[in-house]
UniProtKB/TrEMBL annotation:
Top EC class for this record: hydrolase
Residue intervals of the SRP54-type proteins GTP-binding domain: 269-282
Protein's name according to its UniProt entry: Signal recognition particle protein
Lineage, opening ranks: Bacteria, Bacillati, Bacillota, Negativicutes, Acetonemataceae
EC code: 3.6.5.4
Length: 444
């Protein structure tokens, strides 16, 4: 989980403060020592940690306590506010030009996730009813052009390429002209990276900037490289002037040092974070929500937004209708599981629910992961149509056949049928609750 270590430590520190009626200066000092250590262990920049702790301390000592909060809650509130401020305060969006096309230039080192992110950005823009065009200007990394073309095809988005013989500067310039002639409203340039920062790379990017006149230069960096990501951001910002940062692979970053330091060190806001390899796995970065997650206060807003984006309303209505008629079949069950899966891993979902972050670890093994879903799918696909419509006919010998057909064990089939029965029961109960709720409001 993102920020796992830091979240655990901060929560443990504040747990000690809870239940105290009053906090002495020594209590605050102790807590701040632990906060400082926790941040350093999370690989947050040393100077950033120093300033952060000093600020929180200054605000916590001699604090005028609000009557609605205990002193401990008050310290947590301050830490929450300062963490939010550290990451930029409010969400930073990309500028969409009033005179299309908006040109977005992605820069960064090889392997940071530029090409993947170009696809994710295009996906996000399409969902916002924009018409992006991708430009394949990464001529150095083998297969980068092909990779972008595959992504474009999947998204139904045109990809401009001149192969790997033209210079990236020419490709970018011609690509933008092509976008204008096609009437595309956003252009995303996937520039070439290098393994390390060097003058050749910087000169090339400066030339592209001059020719393609981007509205947004976004640096793509790998969160897992911690403070290296921060120094890469510093260098790129010094040479090119960045408009923002996209932090990739945050899904695999248990520490979070880059996420917490980049804004404070470079002044560049993080605009998006990559949370996985799939096209949907790009999220706008909300400093306040991220701070809440770190402090175990959940992030219900992001969860609701994800649910709204992933759930197909017509489908949901159809399911409701089926439930009402008691016609919720195993096929429907599978479809529902797939919908839930679109929200992300169980661990990611739980970390967004207040107080549930810690639980996600205990659920390991029980989580609804890709493999489990595949197995469920295989089992359901091994059933006959009749069985899928009426699970009550699935007796012992049918279970054996289904297990054999799907390469699983009879116990797996049993477990699945039990889950399905539970889901039906729960949905029915939920419906009854809704009905009685309606009656009550009608009564009033
Ligand atoms: P480029 O050289 O900068 O264009 O890098 P790529 O786009 O080819 O990405 C390098 C690797 O990182 C690929 O295997 C991607 O699937 C992976 N990757 C990119 N973004 C993310 C992310 O947000 N999370 C995870 N887990 N993997 C990512």
């Amino acid at each position: 989980m993102v920020f796992e270590g830091l979240a655990d430590k901060l929560q443990a520190t504040f747990k000690k403060l809870r239940g105290r009626g009053k906090l002495s200066e020594a209590d605050v000092a102790d807590a701040m020592r632990e906060v400082r250590l926790a941040l350093l262990e999370a690989d947050v920049n040393f100077k950033v940690v120093k300033d952060f702790v000093a600020k929180v301390k200054e605000r916590s000592v001699g604090l005028e306590v609000m009557s609605s909060l205990t002193p401990a809650q008050h310290v947590i509130k301050i830490v929450n506010e300062e963490l939010t401020a550290l990451m930029g305060g409010t969400q930073s969006r990309i500028t969409i030009s009033s005179r299309p096309p908006t040109v977005i230039m992605l820069v960064g080192l090889q392997g940071a996730g530029k090409t993947t992110t170009a696809g994710k950005l295009a996906h996000m823009l399409i969902k916002q009813n924009k018409r992006p065009l991708l430009i394949a200007a990464d001529i150095y990394r083998p297969a980068a052009i092909k990779q972008l073309q595959v992504v474009g095809e999947r998204l139904g988005t045109p990809v401009f390429s001149l192969g790997d013989k033209e210079s990236p500067v020419t490709i970018a310039k011609k690509g933008v002209e092509h976008a204008i002639s096609l009437g595309r409203d956003v252009v995303i340039i996937d520039t070439a990276g290098r393994l390390h920062i060097n003058d050749e790379l910087m000169d090339e990017l400066a030339n592209i900037k001059q020719q393609a006149k981007p509205h947004e230069i976004l640096l793509v960096v790998d969160a897992m490289t911690g403070q290296d990501a921060v120094s890469v951001a510093e260098t790129f910002n010094g040479r090119l002037g960045l408009d923002g940062v996209i932090l990739t692979k945050l899904d695999g970053d248990a520490r979070g040092g880059a996420a917490l330091s980049i804004k404070a060190v470079t002044g560049c806001p993080i605009k998006f974070v990559g949370m996985g390899e799939k096209a949907e796995a790009l999220e706008p970065f909300h400093p306040d929500r991220m701070a809440s997650r770190i402090l175990g206060m959940g992030d219900v807003l992001s969860l609701i937004e994800k649910a709204q984006a992933a759930v197909d309303i017509d489908k949901a209505r159809e399911m409701e209708e089926k439930l009402r008629k008691d016609a919720f079949t195993l096929d429907d069950f599978l479809e529902q599981l797939q919908q839930v899966k679109k929200l992300g891993s169980m661990e990611q979902i739980l970390s967004m629910i207040p107080g549930m972050g810690g639980l996600s670890k205990k659920l390991e093994g029980a989580e609804l992961d890709e493999k489990e879903l595949k197995r469920t799918e295989a089992i359901i696909r091994s059933m006959t149509r009749k069985e899928r419509r009426d699970h009550t006919i699935i007796n012992g010998s049918r279970r054996k056949r289904i297990a054999l057909g799907s390469g699983s064990k009879v116990q797996d089939v049993n477990r699945l049928l039990k889950q399905y029965a539970e889901a039906r029961k729960m949905m029915k109960r939920f419906q009854e609750m809704q009905k009685s709720g309606k009656k009550l409001s009608g009564f009033r």
